[in-house]
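Human:
Take a look at this sequence-structure pair and walk me through the tokens.
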Amino acid sequence: MVVAVAVVAVRTLSAAVAVAVVLVVG
């Protein structure tokens, strides 16, 4: 359970970072 939540959190943060990078670079 905890591992699954951690994985989802990491993926969400990674997606947010990717979007931020695209916005900054673009």
